[in-house]
Amino acid sequence: MNKRARNRLIGVTVIILAVAAAVFFGSGAGTGAYSKTVSEAVSDASLVGTRVRVTGTVVAGSWDKRTDPMKFRIKTEGKTGGPELSVVYTGAAPNTFGNDTVAIVTGMLEKGGLIKADDMTTKCPSKYASKSDAMSVTDLLKAKAAGQPVRVHGILKAGSLNASGQGGERFVLTVAGGGGDLRVQFEGAMPAGTKDGVGLVVGGEYTAMGLVVASDVARLSEAK
């Protein structure tokens, strides 16, 4: 083979490898799985028996993290109604998991719209709120506000964030330098960037048990 033919062969080989890599990683096969929508996973019979990665919104009330393995359903992200994919997940639920969380699950697709997943990550919504109309944790603990709607701001106590537990404590709000702890029950998706020490604004009802049953949780914004 002369030099020109050899160089042409090398060039063609490089192009083929580049195209193959684009298909490989674009399909999700870089993790051993094809990336599919909920609709595709439910309706495409040819995918049964293959490893897939599916992104969808957790259907509110469809799960209980206390079961082993954990079971829940996901639907197409950003849509109401439509097909749902049942998930049987073996593993620890991310602390950000909850109703309406966007979950990315990877596993073996089975008949009947079911995926047996061994890997899950979550995408959290970006949500911010000002503390201008919220009480501090210290002020709320001093107030006699049981049974009343409240808004309260504080910081996430280190090590207190749990995966949503359907009735259990989700996290604890506290005050820098002391001033009391406030237990919070919340079943929804935690805002993006939630981590130990981050400022949060919580809206909900303060109960006689000394905890807030929250309907809304947001990151504390820069606004005063």
Question: How would you portray this structure in words?
Answer:
The protein is α/β, with parallel strands linked by helices. The protein has two domains: 32-123, Nucleic acid-binding proteins (OB fold (Dihydrolipoamide Acetyltransferase, E2P), Beta Barrel); 128-220, Nucleic acid-binding proteins (OB fold (Dihydrolipoamide Acetyltransferase, E2P)), CATH 2.40.50.140. It is built from three helices and 13 strands. It has helices at residues 3-26, 38-43, 137-142; strands at 34-36, 51-58, 70-75, 84-89, 102-110, 114-123, 128-129, 135-136, 148-156, 171-174, 181-185, 199-206, 211-220. Strands 2-3-4-6-5 form a five-stranded mixed barrel. It has a five-stranded mixed barrel with strand order 9-10-11-13-12. It is elongated and about 60 Å long. The N and C termini lie far apart (74 Å). The model is unreliable at 14-30 (pLDDT under 50).
Describe the SSE topology.
Layout: H1 3-26, E1 34-36, H2 38-43, E2 51-58, E3 70-75, E4 84-89, E5 102-110, E6 114-123, E7 128-129, E8 135-136, H3 137-142, E9 148-156, E10 171-174, E11 181-185, E12 199-206, E13 211-220
Parallel strand pairs: 1-2, 4-6, 7-13, 8-9, 11-13
Antiparallel strand pairs: 2-3, 2-5, 3-4, 5-6, 9-10, 9-12, 10-11, 12-13
How large is the count of helical segments? 3
Low-confidence stretches: 14-30
The secondary-structure element order is HEHEEEEEEEHEEEEE
What is the C-alpha radius of gyration, as a whole number of Å? Answer: 23 Å
Residues in helices, as a percent range: 10-25%
Biggest sheet, spatial arrangement of strands: 2-3-4-6-5
Mean pLDDT over all positions: 84
For the largest beta-sheet, the strand count, sense and barrel status come to: 5 strands, mixed, barrel
Straight-line N-to-C gap: 74 Å
Counting DSSP E segments of at least 2 residues, the number of strands comes to 13
CATH architecture of the largest domain: Beta Barrel
Question: Could you tell me the strand content as a percent range?
Answer: 35-45%
What CATH calls the topology of the largest domain is OB fold (Dihydrolipoamide Acetyltransferase, E2P)
- SS-derived structural category: alpha/beta
Number of domains: 2
Shape category: elongated
